[in-house]
Specification:
By secondary structure, the chain is mainly α. It is built from 3 helices and 2 strands, in the order H-H-E-H-E. The N and C termini lie far apart (30 Å).
Length: 70
Amino acid sequence: CGLGEAIVQSIQSCDAELRAALYHNIVLTGGTVLLPGFKERVEMEVRSLAPDNYVVRVFLPEDPVHFAWK
């Protein structure tokens, strides 16, 4: 299972009424997300696996290493 699959599985396991908000608010944190093309790859993978009726938005903060601690 890749990261995109794990994200989709996690969101799909939540209540249906929350899924639209969760697909629209995927936040990447940690040092690994600084790899070139990481955000675009995750967004493409999630978009290809998510139901078509959801808007997928992946957010990469300016400082993803410390973002979760702010």
